[in-house]
Amino acid sequence: MAPKKQTPSVRLRRMAAELRRLRASADMSREEVSDQTGINSVTLYRIETAKAKPQKRTLMALLNLYEVDPAQREYLLALLKDASVQGWLRPYHSDLPEEYTAYISFESEAQGVRNYESLFLPGLLQTEDYARAVIRGVLPTATEEQVEDRVRARLERQPLLTKAAPLKFWAVVDEAALRRVVGGPAVMGRQLQHLAEVVAAPNVTLQVIPFEAGAHPGMPGQFILMDFADPMDTDLIYIDSMAGDLFLESEADISRYRAIFDHLVAVAKSPNDSAALVAELAGEHEKGG
């Protein structure tokens, strides 16, 4: 059996970023740190890239070498203690794909999310019936229990948009996502009406790329770009595809996907015109009965 793939928690990424910063402040290479601490340079690389959780004695050796002050030392030891904890998980999440549960955790701690969707409406904006129809459609071999677990996970994410300090959510969707009748006309009509109501919130922005825009950089597929309030938490990209789920966090990838999202925003209808299109389509479904 292949070993279970490890996905980092927000805290592990935060600790890794701070250890990179501390080494840079000390003006030391990984090889120099290895020589002075006995920590293997490959192990140090894995720790600094959040691919491995350090043992406490390893972290203490690094903190001593970098002469970290007591307050910062306490902060990093606290991060180590909780480094494996995903920030927002439920007992049944153990049955969901590991990358998806990691995404749920990252999303719960994000300050802002930019989401491009080419075929579906974003999960945070879906109704229960629409979500169920989407999940059944894309996972035809899933059991009823598996479908319901995913529906519940999707719905439990949505209060992020209405909490005291709500998530800043900016969605760009292809017009195809609005016109594809998922779950039948009645389900789609209720979904569009719900969408028209949700996008009125000040923390939610929706833009639609019209068919007449032609080819655009989002056509290869969806992606999500998350940013975090803590400056030590670098932006993170999540891609869900038929080939598997993927997290990207290199500066080159972040820069590339930011540019793609900016281009999509530029070719999309304005938020006001997009809201008007959603309302128009919702009205058409209502008249159609």
UniProtKB/TrEMBL annotation:
CDD domains: HTH_XRE (cd00093). Gene3D superfamilies: lambda repressor-like DNA-binding domains (1.10.260.40). Residues 19-73 form the HTH cro/C1-type domain. SMART domains: HTH_XRE. It holds the Pfam family HTH_31. It comes from the Bacteria. SUPFAM superfamilies: lambda repressor-like DNA-binding domains (SSF47413). This is Helix-turn-helix domain-containing protein. It comes from Amycolatopsis samaneae.
